[in-house]
Amino acid sequence: MGDLANDDKQAFDELYRLYYPKLYAYSKSFLKIDDGINDILQEVFVKVWLNRQNIKKVETYNAFLYTITKNTLLNELRSRLKSEEFRASLFYHAVATEFVTQQAVEYADIKKRIDEFVHQLPEKRRKIYLMSREEGKTNAEIAAELAISVKTVEDHMTHALRFLKDRLRSLGLIFSLFYHLFF
């Protein structure tokens, strides 16, 4: 590399070509997202150019560049952490794919088992349960639609939920927990 400390623009261009991809990967691993990295690195190289007199040896380029990049990233991260949207995005990207996949598999299994149990309910009780839980109807709406009393709807729901709770409890803790969270 040329003499960056003495305003050699070709040395700067060479430094940029050599380090930009490395600093991009470093920045991405630091922030966990691509958004805004080009702007951050532009700021880094502006700082390098403005502080080029401080780089005396080619051997110090690496440490100098990574230190400036790290400090710029930390400032950017502090700024971004003030945003609720960024914190949510960071959390989403930080969650391991395996964990999300495992949750989806467990949820699908639980949902399948609940559907099987719901189909074991007597026809009228199943209909009332589905109207309540899947269609979101109130007890009064169900009673009016089926021409029965609200008390009868409540009785069917009580028995349906007790039946499902007992079946889920027999399957183990995760199913019981699911029941308490979602029923």
Q: Can you walk through the features of this model?
A:
By secondary structure, the chain is mostly helical. The protein folds into 2 domains: 4-94, Orthogonal Bundle (Rna Polymerase Sigma Factor, Chain: A); 97-182, Winged helix-like DNA-binding domain superfamily/Winged helix DNA-binding domain (Arc Repressor Mutant, subunit A, Orthogonal Bundle), CATH 1.10.10. 78% of the residues lie in helices and 0% in strands. Helix 2 packs across helix 3 (61-80) and helix 7 (139-146) crosses helix 8 (150-171). The longest helix is centred in the middle third of the chain and has 24 residues, at 97-120. The radius of gyration is 30 Å and the shape is rod-shaped. 13% of the residues are buried.
Tell me the layout of helices and strands:
Blueprint: H1 9-31, H2 37-50, H3 61-80, H4 84-94, H5 97-120, H6 123-133, H7 139-146, H8 150-171, H9 173-182
Helix pairs in contact: 1-2, 1-3, 2-3, 5-8, 6-8, 7-8, 8-9
Structural class: mainly alpha
| Separation, N- and C-terminal Cα atoms | 68 Å
The CATH topology of the largest domain turns out to be Rna Polymerase Sigma Factor, Chain: A
Low-confidence stretches: none
Largest sheet: none
The proportion of strand residues reads: under 5%
